Amino acid sequence: MMSGNFISGLLQSITERGRELLGKGRGTDDVSSANLLRLTGDLLTRRGEATGVALAEDVLARYGQLSADGRREFLIELATEYGPDRAALDKAIDAYRIDPSELNALRLHEAAEPRRQELIRRLNHAPGGTAALVHMREDLFRHERERPELKALDQDFRHLFSSWFNRGFLVLRRIDWSTPANILEKIIRYEAVHEIQNWDDLRRRTEPSDRRCFAFFHPRLGDEPLIFVEVALTQEIPDAIAPLLASERRIIPGAQANTAVFYSISNCQAGLRGISFGNFLIKQVVEDLRREWPKLSTFVTLSPVPDFARWLDGELGDEASLLPADIRQALGELKGGSQTPPPEHLRKPLLMAAALYFTQGKIANNQPRDSVARFHLGNGAQLARINWHGDLSKKGLAQAHGLMVNYLYELDAIEENHEAFADRGEIITSGEVRQLLKRKSGLRIAPEAAAG
Questions:
Q1: Which residues does 50 contact at the CB level (< 8 Å), separation at least 6?
Q2: Residue 446: its pLDDT value, please?
Q3: What pTM was estimated for this model as a whole?
Q4: Last residue of a domain, one of 284, 301, 318
Q5: Which end of the chain is more exposed for a tag (fewer CB within 10 A), N or C?
Q6: What is the distance, to the nearest Å, from the Cα of residue 237 to the centroid of all Cα atoms in its chain?
Q7: For residue 342, what is the DSSP state?
C-alpha cells in the first residue's frame, strides 16, 4: 500500500497548491446542488492541473454535505445535462458521412463521449476521489429504479470503473490472523454469505493450517478490500456448511488436503456492483494454493442458492410451471421462508425441482436465474452436485429450503466450459445432476407426502 500512500500524499500537495492559486480554502459554505453544478462546470473548463485537483476536491466535499434529496437532484442533473456536446456531435457525424476515414471516426468517437465521463475522470484526480466516486455510485443505485434517466450515468461509471479496476491494478493479499485489525474488522463486516459471529469465529476461518482467506485491494482505496474469498482445505468435497464452520472440528495439515473448497465469496463495495473481480480472484487463488500445496487436485465451491425458495413458491402456484404436476403436488406442503428443515420424503422432488431451476429457470438473455450460478458457470465451472440439507441455518432454510450446491472447477475444462456457456448458453452439468433431470417425470409420491 506504500505506492497508494505516496500517490495520495502527492495529490494532497497538488491540491493545496491549487488552493493557493485559486485564493481560497476548503469552503463548504454554500451547500446546494445548484452551486455544486456551477463548480462542476468550472471544473470541466479548467486546464491547470493544480487548480483542477483543488476544484475536484471541493466538488466532492460539497457533494458529501448535500442532503439525500440534494444528491439525487445533482445526479439527475449530471445524467440529463452532461451528455455529449450536440453541436460537436452533429458536426462530427456530418464529417464522417462525407469522409469515413479513421481520423473522422476517431473524432466522432470523441464527440460522442458524454461530458459526464470527463467530469468523473477529473473528480478522480482529487485525494480520495476514487473512494468518493464509488460511494457516489452507491447513491445512484438508491434512485435508479424510479429515475430511469440515471441509467445513462451508471453506464458512464461502469465504463470507467471497468478500466480503473481491471486486473492489472488489483493486489491480492492473504488475510490471516496477523493482518491488521482494521482490515480484519472489515472482513467481519463485509462477510455476506455466512455471518462471522465474533473474533473467535474469524480466527477459526483464517488461522488454522487448513483454512485460507484472500482479498483483492486497489491502491487508490487503501485498506478497503474489494472482494474476498474464504477457503477450506479438505480431503473430500463437502455437502454441508456446518461441519466446515464448526468450532470443534478436526484440523488437518494443509499438506494432507486434496480439495480446496471456496465456501464464501463476498463483494465489499456496493458502488462497484457489476464490475467483475471474482473470476480473477478465483483463478489467482487457485494458482497460489497450487504453488503452496502441489497435491491439491480438486477445486470446488460450496455455494448458496439465494433465490430458489422464492422461485419455487411462484412455480408451485403456476399452472404453466416448469415443474411437472407430480412434483408440484409433492412439494405443495413447502412454504417459502420456512424455518423447518424439509422432511426426508421431500428429498427427491426437491432435488429434481432444484435441477430444473438451475438448468431451465432463465432470465433475460437466456441466463440462469440464479446469480451465483451465473457467476460460477460464467467462470467455466460445472454444476456438479445439489446438496440436501446443506445449510440448515435460518438464512439457508429461508432462501433455499436448506439446499446448497457444489460448482466444480476442472482446470483442464474451464476455458471450454466458459466458451460453451458464453457463446451457446450451455450449462455444463455432472452426471449426477443429469440423472435428476431424467427422473423429473413419473415421480412416485410417497404416501406421507400425498397425505400432507
A1: 14, 15, 17, 18, 21
A2: 38
A3: 0.85
A4: 301
A5: N
A6: 25
A7: P
